Amino acid sequence: MAGEEETVSNKQVIFKGYVSGFPKETDMYLTTTSTKLKVPEGSKAVLVKNLYLSCDPYLRFRMSNIPSEDPEFSPFQPGSPIYGFVVAKVVDSGHPDFKKGDLVWGVNGWEEYSLITEPERLFKIPHTDVPLSYYTGLLGMPGVTAYFGLTDICSPKEGERVYVSAASGAVGQLVGQFAKWMGCYVVGSAGSKQKVELLKNKFGFDEAFNYKEEHDWNAALKRYFPEGIDIYYENVGGKMLDAVLPNMRAHGRIAACGMISQYNLQQPEGVHNLATIILKRLRIQGFIAFDYFSQYSRLLDFVVPYIREGKITYVEDITEGIENAPAALIGLFSGRNVGKQVVAIAHE
């Protein structure tokens, strides 16, 4: 165990106050406290050193004062640290299942060191022959989201036509590759020429388009899907969802993973083509990654062999330093990131 008197400074990203509209870097601030590198005597807590922070769009929900039945989506407390997914290393432990040096991932405060009183919610990292940062993405919450949203909700069949919006992000880039492995025709959309090139040349999408250059999304989808869409992996919402609905094939499936176009609107956009759901017998299902954490091993069994064989591509946008975490998070909502947005705060 670490020495009782050893104390270190601990930088934290603090949530300033509830947000209406587009969040700003100034909705968060950096402060420094101190932390003892030892768990309290008799405690079953775990003390960790956080290595990577995961910037995820769902954190925007927690910046609004909107009550939620799900604790994972409950509002942040002003004056307390931002909470999100992290990769960390155990510094000291009073819990029998964790020892010093263990690598873990899970939800934790945005700070350099954290005392975790319920470590049972953490996942131990079983494979260390891959980049640790992957546990914020490919092997973390976004990987769970992509894999189970596609396989369990959409049940793709060989030859089916799949459309992925926000396709170059942490989840979308995986959905496209997984769908290709399953024998599907895959088209993605993104918001820049660079991202479109990534989709086609790095992630192996059959086609991709820049939605900002398309003045008529309905016409664009008809061009890429002349026979219609079997599966839509929904990350955007609003006008994009409205354009997709008439282009769906009968008995199509829509996995509602995110709606990033709506998160910062004070008045969300309406969707007008809802009657299509009836006429085409569509199935739309919302879900969150937390629903599938108990089946996490399925993701590992599926994807780790592909990583080791070099058959999967995963692009990360890594920002260095906890002091830059607010800017990295806010950048998600303007599409500034290319790939999975990660903040590195320590390199073991």
TrEMBL record:
CDD domains: double_bond_reductase_like
Molecular function GO labels: 2-alkenal reductase [NAD(P)H] activity
Originating species: Hevea brasiliensis (Para rubber tree)
Pfam families listed in its UniProt record: ADH_N_2 (PF16884), ADH_zinc_N (PF00107)
The protein's name: Uncharacterized protein
